[in-house]
Design goal:
Order of helices and strands: EEEEEEEEEEEEEEEEEEEE
Helix content: under 10%
Distance between the termini: 13 Å
Strand content: 35-45%
Number of helices: 0
Radius of gyration: 17 Å
Largest sheet: 8 strands, mixed
Strand order of the largest sheet: 8-9-10-12-16-15-14-13
Shape: globular
Length: 242
């Protein structure tokens, strides 16, 4: 999810299909969260959402209490912020940060950083890095998903033709396992996947482009990884402004 902010007022649109008693959208009066690119609900606290900025920021996370709107910054030690694009919560409460942006498709490799649940955000957290290379050459990507059952990370590439590659992180390799086809037409880059999130109960995945949201639904009784063969179902995004 990307929200560009030119003022200290940030409008956050929640586009995640999760059963949590939080408002669909709200305003945060804070300057440091200037260009949100990654977002993940905490798996240990129903009132906490984690964010990070896009490229150009230091390696840090922001902890938002959705009840009080209080925001705290958390330094991530042992990480570089080349082009952080998305974040996902792992089943054990860890946060996985995707340094996967590559507008020119020229990076030799990308990195997934994993940190333990930062709790209240009072102290720095130390990252564990997984350096990765695509098996078929460099790609730009802005979407990261963690399988909520098996704790496996997937990166979804950002393409202009509507056929986005799904890559599973295995050791030091990103291996292509599927293609997600978005065939929407429109003015604002309708086919480019810019964010993703797994539904916590394992029933599906939510994707978004610049103008729409999509759900991939898991067939009952099937393996979680089979979800990538589902047909994307479109839905309208809530209004937002920058």
């Amino acid at each position: 999810m990307r929200v560009v902010t030119r003022r200290p007022l940030l409008v956050v649109a929640m586009v995640f299909a999760v059963a949590k008693p939080v408002p669909a959208s709200f305003v945060i009066a804070t300057g440091p969260m200037r260009e949100i690119s990654g977002c993940a609900f905490s798996t240990t606290s129903s009132d906490v959402v984690w964010f990070h900025n896009d490229s150009g920021d230091t390696p840090r996370l922001f902890r938002l209490d959705v009840r009080t709107r209080a925001v705290r910054s958390v330094k991530v030690v042992g990480a570089e912020a080349v082009d952080w694009e998305d974040m996902a919560a792992a089943p054990n409460g860890d946060l996985v940060i995707g340094d996967i942006g590559d507008n020119g498709s020229s990076r030799a490799g990308v990195v997934l950083y994993r940190v333990g649940d930062p709790g209240t955000g009072a102290s720095p957290v130390t990252a564990r890095a997984q350096s990765l290379r695509y098996e078929d050459g460099a790609h730009d990507a802005e979407a990261l998903v963690v399988d909520p059952e098996n704790d496996v990370s997937y990166v979804i590439t950002k393409t202009s033709d509507g056929d986005s590659g799904v890559y599973v992180a295995e050791g030091e390799t990103l291996r292509r396992v599927a293609t997600v086809a978005i065939n929407e037409r429109g003015f604002l880059f309708p086919n480019r996947i810019t964010a993703a999130d797994a539904i916590p109960d394992g029933s599906g995945i939510v994707l978004r482009t610049y103008q729409s949201g999509y759900v991939l639904r898991r067939a009952k009784g099937s393996a979680w990884s089979s979800i990538w063969s589902a047909t994307p179902e479109a839905f309208s995004l809530p209004p937002s402004r920058s």
